Amino acid sequence: MAAKQALEQPQHQQFALLPKIINGGIAGIIGVTCVFPLDLVKTRLQNQQIGPNGERMYNSMFDCFRKTYAAEGYFGMYRGSGVNILLITPEKAIKLTANDYFRHKLTTKDGKLPISSQMVAGGLAGAFQIIVTTPMELLKIQMQDAGRVAAAAKLAGKSVEKVSATQLATQLLREKGIFGLYKGIGATGLRDVTFSIIYFPLFATLNDLGPRRKDGSGEAVFWCSFLAGLAAGSTAALAVNPFDVVKTRLQAIKKADGEKEFKGISDCITKTLKHEGPTAFFKGGLCRMIVIAPLFGIAQTVYYLGVAENLLGVEKH
């Protein structure tokens, strides 16, 4: 009996929390720094609404990138990156750590984790992350979309006052309290829970298909984790893009002249379908795939390489 317990012990190793949090933070900062300009383009494409005569500010992802760079320069492509880099550490740390924790807890005594349990773990991770994601996305979207709104106002002979993320957060807290920072939390949860339900099981499945490292750890080789992150990230990103469009539009506080206001998720879906058709829900889809794929490819590579474990001098489990 004692021998049997000794054999089972390694399967239930202690869950190392700190290294996972650090890995999530490092991965988030690197990923966001690399892909933020594309994320800005995605936000502007999703928020622009087609006028009554079919007029629009941006015709494509490349057109948006060109016009934004021409009007606002290199640093204009990073508007809103400060708040994103500041909050991406807790956001990614919560997401990756929560998924790992729930997978750890849901693993059966014989070391197996059914696909249904993987989906539950992913969904719970997505639900936990919206505590940080919602205010981060709300503030980031205002900064990213400010250039588009200002350009539209300029064409109409008007001007828009520039507001920093700090000023906006202070204003929302003063007027609406802490709940002011959680505008669009329902749509954010819909996007992030669904994304995580798809992403994490798919990543684990693809990662298991590749060759293992020769150090005896049983982990996948570098390129396998990276490619699995790319494939799972881009697939999940496209699948939930309609939810992302709804979330982005609901969280946009300032609209350009003539753009519609939305009262909630169902109102946004109904009005978007009526005035722009079903293809509107895939605005910025390619952009989002290009953003999310490397973001999660980098994240999973950092996570699985155990960068934090090396920095802390602890053994990676």
Helical content class: over 70%
Biggest sheet architecture? none
DSSP helical segment count:
12
The top-level CATH class is Mainly Alpha
Q: Would you identify the regions where 5 or more consecutive residues have pLDDT less than 50?
A: 1-12
The Rg value, from CA coordinates, equals 21 Å
Q: Please give the CATH architecture.
A: Alpha/alpha barrel
Mass-distribution shape: elongated
Instruction: State which percent range the strand residues make up.
Output: under 5%
Element layout with pairings:
Blueprint: H1 2-8, H2 17-47, H3 61-76, H4 81-106, H5 115-155, H6 165-176, H7 185-209, H8 222-239, H9 241-251, H10 265-276, H11 285-305, H12 307-312
Helix pairs in contact: 2-3, 2-4, 2-5, 2-11, 4-5, 5-7, 7-8, 7-9, 8-11
